[in-house]
Amino acid sequence: MGKMSRDKGKRGERELAARLREYGYDARRSVQYCGANGDADVIGLPGIHIECKRTERLSLYDAMAQAKADARKGEMPVVMHRKNNSEWLVIQPLADWIEMYKEVK
């Protein structure tokens, strides 16, 4: 991965953390080194493993596979994605979404 891509990823992580703070969560970019430690890209939502993708073209299933592989036991894997001039989206497995929906219904 080139320096420009890494820098855009870091900016995306900071941007997402700022948006989550606007919602009242103590979110921040995690300290990670090439994903080797398995930490989420952004932390501050307990029980949620966030894989942040700030790219024009997302390999959806690859991103979700990475989130699932890196999530710790008990964490719900999600991919949060935004491309230029678009809103942030949250992508998660249907079974996890249903579990959340049951809680609010």
UniProtKB/TrEMBL annotation:
It comes from the Bacteria. Pfam families: PDDEXK_15. InterPro entries: D14-like (IPR056931), Restrct_endonuc-II-like (IPR011335), tRNA_endonuc-like_dom_sf (IPR011856). This is Holliday junction resolvase. It comes from Gallibacter intestinalis. The lineage of its organism: Bacteria, Bacillati, Bacillota, Clostridia, Eubacteriales.
